[in-house]
Amino acid sequence: MVEKKTALVIGATGVSGRALVSHLETLADWNTIIVSRNEPYFPTKARFVSADLSDPASCREALSGLSDVTHVFYMAYKDDPVIANTREPNARMFENMLPVVEKAAKDLRHICLLQGTKYYGQYLGPFKTPAKEADARVSTPHFYYDQQDFLEKSRIGKNWSWSAARPHVICGLSLGNPLNLIATIGAYATLMREMGKPLTFPGKPGAFSSIYQATDAGLLARAMVWMATSPKCADQAFNITNGDFFRYQNLWPRFAEHFGMEAGGVETVDLRETMKGSDKLWDSINVKCNLAGYPLARLVSWAFANYAFSNDWDVMSDTTKCRKYGFMEFMDSEEMFIDLFRIMQRERIIP
User: Fold this and answer.
1) How many structural domains are present in the chain?
2) What's the Cα-to-Cα distance from 145 to each of 91, 97, 114, 314, rounded to whole Å?
3) pTM more than 0.85
4) Fewer CB under 10 Å: which end of the chain, C or N?
């Protein structure tokens, strides 16, 4: 008889969370409980628990009865336009959650924490590449460090272990979370095409030509389950990316071809300004093309788009460690982008 495991997926309605829940539901030996403030917008067999992680009382009320949890996947994130302002609330949410779940889950075996390349200071400017898991932390504080320190301290003398996944620009299907590169590019291309314009690159010239990387959400989900169930991965961090690298200057013409557009060069703009009023145009496209009718604000944050296309230095993570430990999956990033655009079109999110 197969021993059942119970996953607690915290932050289940984001890009990575949805992909993880979908993957777990294909595995016969897993039950899944999902935690978020709002009910999932996608169909799922998982049990839903509503909790506000920023409120200690809400955490205690919602999570203290979860005695059957064996594995925790922590993927919750509270955004703020000022990165420094993300530290305190995200550290606090994690610290509110962990003691409650640890006390409730009598057979807790593993906690898998989602991080990213900000761990290496990627958001601050040029950094050591390719980044390796053993690299020293940068001097600027970040909630990744706070969460991991709290996790390691809580681990002392316990039977459970931890791991940390460090992807970069997670790509997948998500609605209601506008911090999504796939939806951003898809909506931007659709609007530019409707306005009769070529698909120009709205970011910095250096971001167009620098080396970049991405992580497919499905690949990340499979990696996190592997990390959480492989004994040799205990108390380790792993870079998880598609395994290849690209430059937007090479991908942009392929994107334009997919959307039936002329490929433009770099035209650096503040998308928050140039896309003002685009909601009405998007609504008309929804009607004209018989789309599912999702409002533009559910798909795109133009502030996030500005950030995503401003990284004018190389971003490279070394994935040798995860391969040495046994995770051998990889993905062609160009194929990933096109496949995800097709899924969005099939779901009638974009035309």
Assistant:
1) 2
2) 9, 17, 12, 23
3) yes
4) N
